[in-house]
Amino acid sequence: xxxxxxxxxxxxxxxxxxxxxxxxxxxxxxxxxxxxxxxxxxxxxxxxxxxxxxxxxxxxxxxxxxxxxxxxxxxxxxxxxxxxxxxxxxxxxxxxxxxxxxxxxxxxxxxxxxxxxxxxxxxxxxxxxxxxxxxxxxxxxxxxxxxxxxxxxxxxxxxxxxxxxxxxxxxxxxxxxxxxxxxxxxxxxxxxxxxxxxxxxxxxxxxxxxxxxxxxxxxxxxxxxxxxxxxxxxxxxxxxxxxxxxxxxxxxxxxxxxxxxxxxxxxxxxxxxxxxxxxxxxxxxxxxxxxxxxxxxxxxxxxxxxxxxxxxxxxxxxxxxxxxxxxxxxxxxxxxxxxxxxxxxxxxxxxxxxxxxxxxxxxxxxxxxxxxxxxxxxxxxxxxxxxxxxxxxxxxxxxxxxxxxxxxxxxxxxxxxxxxxxxxxxxxxxxxxxxxxxxxxxxxxxxxxxxxxxxxxxxxxxxxxxxxxxxxxxxxxxxxxxxxxxxxxxxxxxxxxxxxxxxxxxxxxxxxxxxxxxxxxxxxxxxxxxxxxxxxxxxxxxxxxxxxxxxxxxxxxxxxxxxxxxxxxxxxxxx
RNA sequence: CGGGCCGUAGCGCAGCCUGGUUAGCGCGCCAGACUGGGGGUCUGGAGGUCGAGAGUUCGAAUCUCUCCGGCCCGACCA
Length: 575
Prior knowledge:
The chain is built from 16 helices and 31 strands. The radius of gyration is 30 Å and the shape is globular. The strands form eight sheets. Strands 3, 7, 8, 9, 10, 11, 12, 21 and 24 form a nine-stranded mixed sheet that branches. A five-stranded mixed sheet has the order 16-14-15-17-20. Strands 28-27-29-30-31 form a five-stranded mixed sheet, sandwiched between helices. Helix 1 crosses helix 12 and helix 2 packs across helix 12. It is of the alpha+beta class. It binds one RNA strand of 78 nucleotides through helix 14 and helix 15.
């Protein structure tokens, strides 16, 4: 490709609306343009990177025996109604009506459609299967943000495994786990595999592939010592022992004028340290007012509450609802004596005595509360959000919390979709059994943006060779001089002939402009052909990443670059 | 959905508060000249429904209202 004939629109300034580094760089370096909130055009440079990522994904998926499909993005409502998700996914699905008034949706994921196809499987002898596609997904996100990291239309590699039993699913899951590791490594991403909440997808287990980055939206707890890592939606920690307060024969009420917070009660005369208080929150779970109890110094994880309670929908109760239910406002609430509302409590409260909590009367608290004796807990659920520095649940090392980008997620689904959509096979004994499914996703553009978040410097993007839009650029310093122009052209031709993905910067621009642009775009190798070097028969080879630069004989330049590129290409991590 | 901010040339912005020349600046773009190893200099030029609509006014980029779009924080999120 000749730069002078290409459309690589680099910008001098950062786009005004940018926040994430990857967004700024991908726009400024001419890889992407925003069309509207959450929808981006990939320009030729971006499309080149996209194609390379997709090729890596394909190779690795094919490597685990997966077969590629291509399914519609347009789905009839009926198929989503059969799984129950037409009503459960809510506004995140783009819905429309066709000309006859029939309900139609844009696909946000394809469990239902693949399960329908899997209904054609009739015998256990046809299992296992792994099916995948690389296709556009639509999700009407409430808040698209951070450029390509969170959008409403994006490409996903989604795959689905079909097995006779749980052991088969475990094997398919493991193969995906390893394939994902390799895919991300080859794209230049070091990922952390973390336990995650299965959320609305359902199923028994899931693992997210996370790239630590301040631009991310998830927080993960990880242990540097034993390797334990989990999304905070799921993470647990060991807890240091704490002392109970003085016990009493029965809870004793005391006045606490103006005390509305845990913090205030710790300083109040006759109060208690936060770890001897019971925090009482009121939530509405699927329409039911529910008390949620935690230790005073602990924070609730709403995701854990959702997962643990099995509720579909959850919201904090309004102050009016709280008063109606308990007769007091937030700040004076407690679970003692509450009968008519279900009480969910975190295990950190189990067996605690001498605790302090609200008396369900404004400006009054109770002391000497014995949780087992005084509070009717319906269910004990892990509800507490892990904090940095708490001991690892496996090895007691202090946990770190890292903000991360989720680039992949793999789920053990079970039989939810196969049962709903009739994907059954006969087993060896002739009995009909629902196929056990798994589902596995990678966001292509998000992975691209994640690489930029991780691989950049003050001058621009630093693409790994494997997914760079070009592997090398031949920068002709003074293209008007036939000597430089010819020498550059020869090197360019020779590299092309050797199968190197090479760009010829033959523009009539000043050298500084060309160097800046090459750096901004992030091409791994640069061959600088200029009159100064040519006087001695030399050109310069520069690595974008390290800035290491050396002169070589003009006749040996193509060979030297090709050799480096081919050597770097042959490196396949994770094998 | 709640809170905040912003829409003026391809990009980045000023002007608005306090209404009044022909709506400006930098970068980019076009032509020419000089130049030529890290975004060079000079000369000349093209480029605008001031997000849209309504209103107030002799007069609106500027004031008022409505709508549309975008960004950020939160809620939400497969």
